[in-house]
Amino acid sequence: VQLQASGGGLVQTGGSLKLSCANTGSPRRITVMGWYRQAPGTQREMVAQLTDGGSRIYANSAKGRFTISGDPTKNILYLQMDSLKPEDTGLYYCMGDFKFWGQGTEVTVSS
Predict the structure, then answer these.
(1) 52, CA 20 to 30 Å: which among 61, 67, 72, 97?
(2) What is the per-residue pLDDT for 22?
């Protein structure tokens, strides 16, 4: 499994970005996928997760602004991020089953 994340970039406060993640390696049944964020000098934290059954959980900071979608069974994941804030800045990682991690895509929100 090689999770490849893309879609990061530089946006102004209030802007939107959509992150994508796909498995470019051998397909594998994955039951849960998620997005994690790590800002400079901080620990990696969960942003949102999606199970193969369609259950979603969000960090409090993401609720109402971010939407996770995709299909873990097909190793595909998205994160629509709206109303972005400077505190959303960081490196966003795609995760599969808590053991597969992508290389990260950088999101920078300017004030």
Answers:
(1) 61
(2) 97
Strands 105-110 and 9-12 come out as parallel
Q: How many Å from the N-terminal Cα to the C-terminal Cα in the chain?
A: 37
Q: What's the average model confidence in pLDDT over 77-97?
A: 98
In sequence order, which residues have a C-beta less than 8 Å from that of residue 7 and are 6 or more positions away?
17, 18, 19, 20, 105
**pLDDT digit string (tens) for 46-64?**
999 999 999 999 999 999 9
CB atoms within 10 A of CB 64: 10
- Residue 34's H or E segment, with its range, is strand 32-38
Determine the Cα–Cα distance for residues 52 and 39; give it in Å rounded to an integer.
Answer: 28
Q: How many CB atoms lie within 10 A of CB 32?
A: 16
- Residue 63: CB atoms within 10 Å: 10
